[in-house]
Amino acid sequence: MTGNDIADFRPRLADLTTALGLLTRLPLPLSVFTKDQTRVPAHAAWAYPLVGLVIASLSALAGWVALSFGLPSTAAALFVLLASIASTGAMHEDGLADCADGFWGGWTRDRRLEIMKDSQIGTYGVVALVLSLGLRFAALAALIASGGYLMALICAAVMSRAAMVAVMYALPAARPAGLSGATGRPPKHAMALAVLFGVVLVGWVLPMALIAVLAVTFGVALVARAKIGGQTGDVLGATQQITEITVLLTALAALQ
Fold first, then answer.
1. What DSSP designation does 29 have?
2. What are 89-115's pLDDT values in tens digits?
3. Rounded to whole angstroms, how far apart are CA atoms 17 and 97?
4. HSE, side-chain direction, 13 A CA sphere, residue 202
5. Three-state DSSP class for 160?
6. What is this structure's pTM?
7. Contact 140, 81 (CB under 8 A)
8. Rounded CA separation 126/154 (Å)
9. CA 164/CA 187 separation, integer angstroms
10. Where exactly are the transmembrane stretches of this chain (predicted)?
11. Cα–Cα distance for residue pair 165/143, rounded to 1 Å
């Protein structure tokens, strides 16, 4: 069953719990997903940007505590990153690393998917993680030093989760037996609502980031389609990481 098989999509408050259970490691109740349930997990995709808001709030709190103890902006940036990674269990970082290894370590679609499924990390994955963490740290440290990191952090977390939903909707699941395949395809209105959350927030706070995020998200989707013919949970994780970095760097550029 796909998310579009059910026409009467309606957002539900319980969807937030489902989305938090999927995208974080926070101790929340989460029902077991089964293929025969009447409401597929992808219906909760509209709430993914709200999960980003929760994660950004926890990360900002960690940064505020660090600054309250008199730590410099560089140390506060590390605590922000730590809170974000701890909240999600590094699942998005893992997806980025797996995509880097699979996309550029395999010569065929099946081999790329096989590499992505392997729990071991390769050279491409290490390089991708170092670059991701380094760019986010540098941007956050500079933004914290400027005193304007809160809204940039929120915009990055919300918009990057909205981009995930857009890719989920635009591309078929490359591995039906994987997490993305089990989650399903979001209904059109769930996708539209998620994207609306991101566009309204970023368009209000940081409008110059919208074009950059659109270009980056489209680029990730094109590469994923070319490499494996669709999307997986790893592709969605990579989408989140790359778009988050894009928003943070755009916010930093806006300060210059």
1. -
2. 999 999 999 999 999 999 999 999 999
3. 27
4. 33
5. helix
6. 0.91
7. yes
8. 27
9. 14
10. 45-67, 73-91, 121-144, 150-171, 192-223
11. 27
Q: How far apart are CA 157 and CA 81, in angstroms?
A: 12
Closest CA to 227 of 174, 178, 177, 183: 174
Q: Are 238 and 220 in contact (CB under 8 A)?
A: yes
HSE-up (13 A, CA, CB side) for residue 7: 0
Structure tokens at 20: 């938090």
Whole-number average pLDDT of the chain: 91
Q: How far apart are CA 199 and CA 18, in angstroms?
A: 23
Interval 133-157: pLDDT, tens = 999 999 999 999 998 899 999 999 9
Question: How wide is the angle at C-alpha 158 spanned by C-alphas 174 and 116, nearest 5°?
Answer: 25
- The span from the CA of 185 to the CA of 34, in Å, is 14
Which pair of tokens denotes residue 5?
Answer: 């098989």
DSSP result, 72-88? -HHHHHHHHHHHHHHHH
Q: Please state, in angstroms and rounded to a whole number, the distance separating the CA atoms of residues 76 and 165.
A: 30
| CA–CA separation, 181 and 225 (whole Å) | 15
